[in-house]
Amino acid sequence: MELVAATDVDNPLTGLHGASNVYGPQKGATREDIMLLDGALERWAGVLEKLPTCPPAVAGQAGAGAAGGLGAAILALGGRCESGVALVNRLIGLDAAFDAADLVITGEGSFDFQSLRGKVVAGVAGAARDRGVPCVVVAGQVSAGRREAAAAGVTESWSLTEHFGTEQEAMTRPADGLREIATRLAAGWRR
């Protein structure tokens, strides 16, 4: 039997790109909270490393920071972390769909710098880019840099917040916004 964690991020457990520093602010953690959390995760990594199945320096392993550190636990138990999009791709044959596509549309709640660090949207955009197929991201909000997004394979991105003008309106009427954006996309990409 094999233990595999399908992760959408490659963050380590601790440090500048670790779980606390990257995801803490999203959850409302202050700078002081982040320092406290990161220190606790460092101590936890020390405990995990006492397990005979734990790789050395588990805190620095790619994916160890996934799901607030669940990735580190999987690694410590002798498992491995695998890209979620790669796993789904392999299981459902997504490559064939990409090969037949003229346009790829993917989405995310918030398309930001973290989206480009192994999340599904980055995997989808990269697969489209590798095939020369345009890729459009539709998200609740967009803050990813255009150059970084383009390098990842994103041709353009659409934001519900920008579409409506306010986050409140986007949160209140997401289905309306997605329909309206889809109509605009269909008109713009029709061949």
Quick overview of this protein structure:
The chain is 48% helix and 15% strand. It has 191 residues and is of the alpha/beta class.
Q: Any overview of this molecule?
A:
The chain contains ten helices and five strands. It is globular and about 60 Å long. The protein has 191 residues and is of the alpha/beta class. The model has no long low-confidence stretch (mean pLDDT 92). The strands form two sheets. A three-stranded parallel beta sheet has the order 3-4-5, with helices on both faces. It folds into two domains: 4-84, no CATH class; 94-189, 3-Layer(aba) Sandwich (Rossmann fold), CATH 3.40.50.
Identify the CATH class of the largest domain. Alpha Beta
Number of strands: 5
The separation of the N and C termini measures 48 Å
SSE succession:
EHHHEHHEHEHEHHH
By secondary-structure content and strand pairing, the structural class works out as alpha/beta
Shape: globular
The main sheet comes to: 3 strands, parallel
Spatial order of strands in the largest sheet: 3-4-5
**Proportion of β residues?**
5-15%
CATH topological fold name of the largest domain: Rossmann fold
What's the average pLDDT?
92
InterPro entries: Glycerate_kinase, Glycerate_kinase_RE-like, Glycerate_kinase_sf
Protein name: Glycerate kinase
GO molecular function, one term: glycerate kinase activity
Organism: Phytohabitans houttuyneae
